[in-house]
Amino acid sequence: MTCTFGPAHCFHEGSMLMVCAYVYAAGAAFAGYIHVRRAALREHGHDSLLVHVRRVRFFPALVGVAFASRAAWFVLLDTHAMQDPNAFGGYDDMLVFLSWLDVTVDLYPLGVLLWNKLATLLYISAFALLLQFWADMLDHTMREIRAPAELSRPARQRRVLVVAIVWMYVIEIALLLGKTFCIGEPLWLTNSDGWCTALFSVILALALGYDAYRLRRYFDAQDYSRVLVSVARRVTLLGLLCSSLFILRGILLVATPVASLRATSTPWLYYAVPELAPGCLVLALMHVKHDGRDRSIFTPTERTPLVSPELMLSV
Asked: Which PANTHER family match (predicted)?
C-alpha cells in the first residue's frame, strides 16, 4: 500500500479495483498497438472510396482511450480521490462553495465520475462505428438487388444512429452536471448512471445482433468460399458475444439497487468482462499480418474493397 497523497488516499496495489485498472491499461496498450500497426501497414482504408471503410479505422483509437479512461476511473476510486474521510469510517465528497455564483459544487463528479462517463461514451461510440460499418457494407453489396424504394433506408438508419449518439452525450453531460450542482441528490439521480448505461448497452446489443443476423443470412445465400466462411464465423461470433454480454450487463445494472455503488464492488462482472471481451475480440480480428508483398496487388484489402464484398464485411 502506497500513501503518496496522504493516509486517506492510498494506492492498494492488490485491490480488485487496481487489478481491473491494470487489465484495462493493458487493453488500452493493445488497442494503441493495433491502431499504430494498421496505420503503418496502410490498412486503415485511407485510399478507399467508401467513407464507412475509412471511418471504422477510428475503432481502435476510441476503444483505447475508453479503456485508458476506465483504468483512470478505477485508480481514482481506489484512492478515494476528491473525497474526505468522515467520522463514521466512510468518505464524503469534497464540496466547494463558489461565492461569485452563490452555488456549492461537488468536486467528485467532475474529478472522478467524469472518467467513468467518458469511458462509457467512447466505448459505445466505437461499437456504433462498427455497427454502421456492417450496415453500410451490407447495403453496398446488396444495392443492385434492392428495390428503388429501399435505397433511402440506409441513409435513414445513419441519421437515427447519429441522433441517438448525440442524445446519449447530451443525457450523460446533463446527469454529470446534475450530480455536480445538486448537493444531496435524490435516489433516482444516484441510480441514473447504471440505468443509462443499461439502456445504452441493451440498445447497442439489439442493433449489433440484428445486423449480425442480416450478415449471416447474406453469407448463407452466397456461393461457398473459404474467405466467406471465415468472415461469416467472425461476424456470428462477434454478434453473439457482444449481444449476450451487453444484454447481461444491462439486466444486472437495472436489477441492482444503487447500481453504481454495487458495480464498483464487483467491477469484473459489471465492467471488465462486458467491455474487455468484446473490445479485445474486435481488436484481435482487426490485427493485420504483413507478408512483405504489395497487398494492393495480391490481396483485396480495405484499400481495394470493391474487389471482394465478403472481405469488405470483415472487421
From this structure: THH1_TOM1_TOM3 DOMAIN-CONTAINING PROTEIN, TOBAMOVIRUS MULTIPLICATION PROTEIN 1-LIKE ISOFORM X1
